[in-house]
Structures are given as C-alpha cells and as structure tokens.
Amino acid sequence: MNNCRHLACLFVLISCICARAQTPLKGYIVTLQGDTVKGYLIDRIDARLSKEVEFLKEEKSNKISYSPSNLKAFGFDNGRSFKQRSYSDSAGVQYFFAKRIVQGKVDMYIRRKVTNDQPDIYLTNNSSHVEVVLFPPSRKFIEDSKGRKYTPDQFKHLSLLDYVKGDPPAPKENEKKLRYIEKDIQRHIAEYNKLYSGTFPTKVYRERPKFSYDVTGGLPLEIYDHLTHFRVAFYRTKSFPEKSRTVSFISGASYRYWGTKSEYDTWREQTISIIPIGINVHTARGFIRPYFYAGGGALFLIDTDDANIENVVKTKIYFYPAINVGAGIKLKVGSKFILAELTPSLSDRDIFVNVGFSF
Hints:
With 359 residues, the protein is mainly beta.
C-alpha cells in the first residue's frame, strides 16, 4: 500500500511539469486562381491530407477546410508539399491531394491510404507533359500450368513507367525486378532524373522521422518484508508521423533490482533487459492515450550471494533471450506526456506499476 502511495505522489509530481501546447505548422496554400497565401496548416498524416487540408491565416484564427477540388496545392515550410491531382473512372473525375516525393524531369507524387497499403502513384513528365497514374497490383492470384502463382497485373506499372519517361535511361536496367513498392519506384525515378539534372533540377523528399523518449520507474504490486525491489527503464521511440501516428518502433533497456540485506542472509539479483527493436501501438488523439508495446531482445541476469559463513561473495552472470511487453496510458501535458504502465516480470512472475515522463 505504501508503494502505491509513493507511485501516486510521483505521478502527481510529474503531472505538474508544464509544456508548450502544440501549434499548427507554418505553410501556404495555392488557390485555383494561382494565388499563394501564407499562413498555418493543421498537420495530419498523408492519408488524411489527401482528402482535406485545414488552413489558418493566423496561428489562432478560425480554420478553413479545403477539399482537393477547390485548391491547387499546399505545403509546409519544412518542404512537405501536396498538389491537386485527378484521374477519371466510371464514377467521373476523382480529385485528391498527392505528396511530391521526387522532383525533376519526372515528378513523382503519392497518395497514401489509411489502410497502409502501397500508395497510388502519380507521375508527370515536365518535358513532354505526359501524365500517368499507377495503382497497386491486385491481390488476386492466378495459378499457371506449372503451378506458379502470380497476379495478372503485377507488372502493369512497368509499361506505364516507360510511357511517362518517353526515353528510358541507357543502359536500361532489368525492370522485371522493379516491384510495385514506393521506395523502389522512388529510387528508380530519382536515378532516371539524374540523367537530366542539368536541365531539370533534381530533388528527392525524405520523410523526417520523429523521436521521443520515455523514462519510467516502478515498484512491484506485491511487496515482501526485508526485500528491496524496483525497476527503471529508458526507451526511445521512432515514428514516421507522415505515414502513421498509431504505430511506432521502440528500442531501449530496463534495469530491475531485487535483493535483501540482513544479519543472516544478504543477496541481490539484478537484470538488464535490452530491446534492440520492438513495436508500439497507441492512439493518436485525445488527452488519455492507451498504448501497448512488445519487443524481443536479450536479458542479462547478475546473481550475487554474500555467504556470511564462508565470507565469500559469489556472483554468477546468465544470459537469456527475452520478450519485453508493457501496456499503459499517456496523459497529454502540452506537447509532452506523463505515463503510467504495467510491465510483467516473467522471471519471477511479478507485475510492476511504473510511472514516468515522455518527451
């Protein structure tokens, strides 16, 4: 019970740390008449910005929403830019905002989807003004006479690539290896543009990852007399907020101490658990944000026994593969968070209650 009081006090103390509230990002819009208006844009993932963008003339003014049919382009001051694109299908003309990720003789735009599938790709040749739209191949598989499975349109994008380029680079690469993957096609177009960089300046947009750091400390739910038992941890989170704000990658380490010191018995057990890579799934909006993480790694156990009878300190070190999991909630405080989480200790079947700060 005392441990719970201590953790509650620590949680309240951390919650008193104030941080600056998140603000819209500086950017601009281009109207249908071609006028550029500077102001602020609400930052969203690419998939949401493909359907709508919210603009503010001043940082604290009212938001104005624009759909792809009533705006030519918009962009953030950090280089992330979108342009109105369209294609025709049986339902008519479909408008959307697409992000430019390659600039040169051939510009490459992508329209990402909430489902995290491969994006639609829009290519335009700035010399011939030829434009094409590439769609991800169908997931429907067909089996040939030899039992090999394939999708009927898995290489359809290759002919469209040749068509939009007009004059493929020489020597021509083996395009049969060019799969419908965003990074592969981006690399292919960028290499092609280098051949014409003297006439068409070449630029490749690189999405900037976002890093955050979690520091936590905790105590076990079950307390034993004459035992000192605690846990501390440090994790780094790497996310790509333009693609997703609900999934990120984590790495870090945790330290656990468990020991006792008395007239008759003195021993201590220390573990260092390292997570080189893991996945964190969390909500992206709201004051309270639940999350869960899991990752594989390695655990080092340092077992020390002070044998008073023999007057000898015995230390043994063990190595084990480990699975690290945890679940909790984060409370938004400005642009940062305080957190509370539960983490199981599989070695001794304890559950730790941890509180901390995410910045």
